[in-house]
Amino acid sequence: MTMTIDTLGKAVRHKMLVVAQCRGCGREARFLASDLAQFYNPGRSLSGLPFKCRECNLGDCRISASEYLNDRTREIIVWRPVKVKQSN
Q1: pTM above 0.85, yes or no
Q2: Of the candidates 17, 9, 13, which has an alpha carbon nearest to the alpha carbon of residue 64?
Q3: For strand 17-22 and strand 61-66, is the pairing parallel, antiparallel, or unpaired?
Q4: Three-state SS annotation for 13-81
Q5: CB 19 within 8 Å of CB 29
Q6: Which residue from 76, 68, 83 is spatially nearest to 5, judged by alpha carbons?
Q7: What is the number of other CB atoms lying within 10 angstroms of the CB of residue 27?
Q8: In the chain, what are the domains?
Q9: Do 37 and 2 form a contact (C-beta atoms < 8 A)?
Q10: Band of the pLDDT at 73, cuts 50, 70, 90?
Q11: By CB neighbour count within 10 A (0-12 exposed, 13-18 middle, 19+ buried), where does 18 fall?
Q12: Of 59, 48, 64, nearest in space to 23 by CA
């Protein structure tokens, strides 16, 4: 039986990557779903995650879940989200 990975919690449970791809310039960023779950509700849909492209400043990103296969995947860059405290 095939299961659709449509929420962050399901992606965490299956130890997946979350891939955000800008529809404007095509830039991609990969995150561990477990890292994102520290900042966002695990019940949140993947398409509702707030990503914004650093290059073209568009907020229009295609969000998908991707498997990470150690034995078949060559080196990839995985970004780690951090909360930044703004000073006044």
Answers
A1: no
A2: 17
A3: antiparallel
A4: HCCCEEEEEECCCCCEEEEEHHHHCCCCCCCCEHHHCCCCCCCCCCCCEEEEEECCCCCCCCCCCCECC
A5: yes
A6: 68
A7: 14
A8: 8-66 (2.20.28)
A9: no
A10: low
A11: buried
A12: 59
Give the pLDDT band of residue 59 (cuts 50, 70, 90): confident
Residue type, 45: S
Q: Is the pLDDT of residue 38 over 70?
A: yes
pLDDT per residue as tens digits for the range 4-27: 899 999 999 999 999 999 999 999
Dig out the tokens for 37 from the structure.
């779950």
